[in-house]
User: Which sequence fits this backbone?
């Protein structure tokens, strides 16, 4: 059964959703029959990479908030992340456009390493304060994932996989996806947001029941915490 996950590296709920989904999948009876495909989504395609400010300062400036208020909101998300074993360091997070990171994940997908690449990117962005728009950083993440450094550099210094990124975003638009994470199971069931583990598990069970009968129709969406295209989380 195929599961497609639309996500953006800079979405804090996407990493949390990944962990909750993984927990559900580990308890799923037919997990060995599941194929996962990560899909690209950009919350803010026009975002300019700026290593001089933190994500807290960027949000404060972009939203017209005080810096303290931005930190307060991100602190709440940090607490949520900690509940699933993740460490978020928003004070260190680098404001970075995610387009090159998405091209990087498509390269990783070519070698069956899409999930590993997503994990490396999330950790780099939210935990380690790395610039996920920097080519050398992405090459190092690629090496940690098992990708060839020379090929990664060639890809990132070209336009390779740009079309695939745009196509993923187009597919999201056709499905009416406005926020991420967004999980589509067997082209029929969908979970929107970083839902509770049991919601993912229940949806997996329902989707697999239909998959086993070779039935598929429109999406049944379960809503949850997500980041919207206007930048609200």
Assistant:
């Amino acid at each position: 059964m195929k599961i497609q996950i639309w996500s953006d590296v800079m979405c804090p709920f996407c990493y949390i959703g990944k962990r909750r989904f993984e927990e559900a999948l580990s308890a799923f009876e037919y997990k060995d029959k599941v194929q996962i495909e990560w899909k690209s989504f950009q919350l803010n395609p026009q975002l300019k990479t700026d290593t001089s400010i933190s994500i807290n300062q960027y949000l404060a400036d972009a939203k017209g908030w005080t810096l303290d208020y931005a930190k307060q909101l991100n602190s709440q998300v940090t607490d949520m992340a900690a509940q699933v074993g993740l460490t978020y360091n928003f004070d260190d997070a680098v404001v970075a456009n995610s387009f090159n990171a998405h091209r990087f994940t498509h390269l990783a997908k070519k070698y069956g390493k899409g999930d590993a690449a997503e994990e490396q990117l999330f950790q780099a962005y939210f935990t380690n304060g790395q610039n996920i728009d920097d080519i050398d950083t992405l090459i190092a993440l690629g090496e940690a994932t098992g990708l060839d450094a020379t090929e990664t550099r060639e890809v990132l210094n070209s336009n390779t996989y740009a079309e695939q990124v745009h196509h993923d975003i187009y597919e999201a638009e056709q499905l009416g996806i406005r926020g991420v994470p967004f999980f589509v199971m067997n082209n029929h069931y969908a979970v929107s947001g970083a839902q509770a583990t049991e919601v993912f598990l229940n949806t997996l069970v329902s989707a697999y029941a239909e998959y086993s009968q070779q039935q598929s129709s429109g999406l049944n969406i379960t809503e949850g915490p997500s980041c919207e295209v206007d930048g609200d989380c």
In short: The domain at 2-45+99-228 is CATH 3.40.30.10 (Glutaredoxin). The mean pLDDT is 95. The two ends are 30 Å apart (CA to CA). Residues 79 and 192 are 21 Å apart (CA to CA).
